[in-house]
């Protein structure tokens, strides 16, 4: 059980003063796990992504684009949306002696605007200045102040990631409330490590991280950030080591059968396995047939053929009378696996079941019974597989697809459904060799470093956005020869609202040009709606699919041969590589067009060049890490690496090594975490929700 000292941090954010039910919902959308409520700890770990420097106060003509500026302006004109255009933005034209600029408010509160920006008044407005259709614009200024207001404005302010409707000041209020309730926690770090790195204590670090005073404070190498990163990394390293130690203690079972089903399956495949697939299978089978418990990672680029390897491994287990489960991160992927594997499985008498969160209660009950009685050999599903009311007759192997979407805990939870079940974790994010050890401890790993034959290389080009007309013509030609096209618009969390609007607009544009063959899929859609859009694209009813990055993981439409990525400069290298991997899956010639908005920085340029040069995921991963190590700041989502909340793996590589060494030392000296520092470390593990790891200690 979590120590009670942490209780305040795991209390509901909704209980904080000044956070009403509406704001709480927004926080849930931004910070909480699906179906869960935001807790204080989520607020505290939501560190600023930027520093708003309000010292820049240029004239309109001198103001630089794409930066936060504070402008002193006169309100010149109100452009209120009229009648049936009421959904259009409310625009205000403001000016000074050097030029003018539009303030743009979507879904505006007209009363507030008219009160804050009366015609003719002088105001200070702060926000990001952008050039749009040749006009200067500030969309949703973050401040609109009069003389008295500007005098009180702090020169620097934290900027947190937001979601539609949630304003910075609500986040700051919540952060202050949470900081006030921060309990005093025992020190879990080694004092000599702290001294050597000049790092503050945990509470000071949190306070400072949320109150940056200079740009250095919001960068990964800020002292407060380093301290918090070290805490997270130490908890991760400890949890991994505890997990591994436990796995080694637990005897496994011999889970490989006599080969009759797998041989029939291999014979029925329309292709021969690649050398890499054969090698990986041999490694997996050796684990399965040993009495040691398997914990193996199967790494392979998108399209390298992991699914077949998983099926053959699962079939081995079924041969000896046990069950296997395959857990995918989304409904679409679970269903896709099911549909793809069903004909193969049926051909050799394997009984497949699909269990997703969307199954109706009666159907779910029936499925649960089938699974509990052992009448399903292979169960494919989503998170619903780890629900506590699901019992297997005898689970021998748990396969987890696209693992970085799941935490260590979920891996364990699925493995725990069987008696010492073997665990195979599949990932399409190649982990740079230099990091693999850190991410997966000494977990065994098999690599699919060879693509199935017959793939033609993807023709990759980078074009400035001004050439979008050429791209549309290219798409027209491709459609003419039967192609299907993905068109990706990026989603940047800072302003989801505008990004969604951009995807919607692009969808409308393309529909005007190409007619009713354009689909749209984005993260805000309901599951069923999104599946329907994907299905229509798979079936060819729609032939262009405009998407935000929801198509990132695993979706398989072999007919899709063109990938257009808008604002390619906003994506990380690994993410671009993943997206590109959606095409080039059939034997047709595929292309990928990267549309960028210049001017490009050095790293952005280097990313696009690398992408054009190679399709080797491991090379790309190494290069990604190198570029990030050189100071490019991207969230873990963009980097494609498994996520940390506070640590940045490229920037904090040295701290990671420190945490790894420390974890090793700790567990060598105090394997049960029973010493006073051990007690403090238990608090750390609970703080980062590695409860499962602490439970391993108890069980041990
Ligand atoms: P991954 O899960 O690694 O992204 P998949 O398992 O979905 O890749 O495989 C991608 C495609 O390649 C599928 O259509 C699959 O049937 C096909 N495939 C897999 N292995 C081979 C092979 N050895 N030869 C030819 N095609 C293969
Ligand atoms: Mg896959």
From TrEMBL:
Gene3D superfamilies: Nucleic acid-binding proteins (2.40.50.140), P-loop containing nucleotide triphosphate hydrolases (3.40.50.300). Pfam families: DEAD, Helicase_C, RecG_dom3_C, tRNA_anti-codon. GO terms for biological process: DNA repair. Keywords: ATP-binding, DNA damage, DNA repair, DNA-binding, Helicase, Hydrolase, Nucleotide-binding. Residues 467-626 form the Helicase C-terminal domain. PROSITE patterns: HELICASE_ATP_BIND_1, HELICASE_CTER. This is ATP-dependent DNA helicase RecG. It comes from Methylosinus trichosporium (strain ATCC 35070 / NCIMB 11131 / UNIQEM 75 / OB3b).
């Amino acid at each position: 059980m979590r120590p009670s000292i942490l209780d305040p941090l795991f209390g509901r954010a909704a209980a904080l003063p000044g956070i009403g039910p509406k704001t709480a919902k927004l926080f849930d959308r931004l910070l909480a796990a699906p179906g869960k409520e935001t807790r204080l700890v989520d607020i505290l770990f939501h560190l600023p992504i930027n520093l708003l420097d309000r010292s820049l106060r240029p004239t309109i003509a001198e103001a630089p684009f794409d930066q936060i500026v504070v402008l002193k302006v006169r309100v010149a004109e109100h452009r209120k949306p009229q009648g049936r255009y009421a959904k259009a933005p409310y625009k205000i034209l403001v000016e000074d002696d050097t030029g003018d600029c539009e303030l743009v408010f979507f879904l505006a509160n007209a009363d507030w605007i008219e009160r804050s920006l009366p015609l003719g008044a002088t105001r200070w407005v702060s926000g990001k200045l952008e050039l749009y259709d040749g006009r200067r614009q500030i969309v949703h200024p973050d401040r609109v102040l009069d003389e008295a207001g500007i005098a009180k404005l702090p020169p620097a302010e934290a900027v947190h990631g937001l979601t539609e409707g949630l304003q910075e000041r609500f986040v700051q209020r919540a952060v202050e409330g949470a900081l006030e309730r921060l309990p005093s926690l025992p020190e879990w770090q080694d004092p000599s490590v702290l001294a050597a790195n000049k790092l503050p204590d945990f509470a000071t670090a949190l306070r400072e991280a949320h109150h940056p005073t200079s740009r250095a404070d919001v960068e990964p190498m800020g002292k407060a950030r380093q301290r918090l990163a070290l805490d997270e990394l130490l908890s991760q390293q400890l949890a991994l080591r505890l997990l591994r130690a436990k796995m080694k203690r637990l005897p496994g079972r011999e889970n490989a059968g006599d080969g009759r089903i797998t041989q029939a399956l291999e014979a029925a495949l329309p292709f021969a396995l690649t050398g890499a697939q054969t090698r990986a299978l041999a490694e997996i089978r050796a684990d399965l047939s040993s009495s040691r418990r398997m914990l193996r990672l199967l790494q392979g680029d998108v399209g390298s053929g992991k699914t077949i390897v998983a099926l053959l491994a699962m079939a081995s287990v079924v041969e000896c009378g046990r069950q296997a489960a395959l857990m995918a991160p989304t409904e679409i992927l679970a269903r896709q696996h099911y549909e793809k594997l069903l004909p193969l499985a049926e051909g050799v008498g394997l009984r497949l079941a699909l269990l997703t969160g969307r199954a109706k209660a009666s159907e779910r009950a029936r499925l649960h019974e089938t699974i509990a009685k052992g009448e399903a050999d292979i169960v494919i599903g989503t998170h619903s597989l780890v629900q506590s009311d699901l019992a297997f007759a005898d689970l021998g192997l748990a396969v987890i697809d696209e693992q970085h979407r799941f935490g260590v805990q979920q891996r364990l939870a699925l493995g725990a459904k069987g008696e010492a079940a073997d665990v195979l974790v599949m990932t399409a994010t190649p982990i740079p060799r230099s990091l693999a050890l850190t991410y997966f401890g000494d977990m065994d790993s098999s690599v699919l470093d060879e693509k199935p034959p017959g793939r033609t290389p993807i023709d990759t080009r980078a074009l400035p956005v001004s050439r979008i007309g050429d791209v549309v013509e290219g798409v027209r030609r491709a459609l003419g020869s039967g192609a299907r096209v993905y068109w990706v618009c990026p989603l940047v969390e800072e302003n989801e609202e505008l990004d969604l609007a951009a995807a919607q607009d692009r969808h409308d544009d393309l529909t005007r040009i190409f007619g009713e063959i354009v689909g749209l899929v984005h993260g805000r859609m309901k599951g069923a709606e999104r599946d329907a859009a994907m299905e229509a694209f798979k079936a060819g009813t729609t032939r262009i699919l405009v998407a935000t990055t929801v198509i990132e993981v695993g979706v398989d439409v072999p007919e899709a041969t063109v990938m257009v990525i808008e604002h390619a400069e906003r994506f990380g290298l690994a993410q671009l590589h993943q997206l590109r991997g959606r095409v080039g899956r059939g034997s047709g010639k595929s292309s990928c067009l990267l549309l960028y908005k210049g001017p490009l920085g050095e790293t952005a340029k280097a990313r696009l060049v690398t992408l054009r040069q190679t399709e080797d995921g491991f090379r790309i991963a190494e290069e990604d890490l190198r570029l990030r190590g050189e100071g490019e700041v991207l969230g873990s989502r963009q980097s494609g690496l498994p996520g940390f909340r506070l640590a940045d793996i490229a920037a904090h590589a040295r701290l990671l090594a420190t945490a790894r060494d420390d974890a090793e030392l700790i567990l060598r000296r105090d394997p049960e975490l029973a010493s006073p520092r051990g007690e403090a470390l238990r608090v750390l593990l609970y703080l980062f929700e590695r409860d499962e790891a602490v439970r391993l200690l108890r069980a041990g």
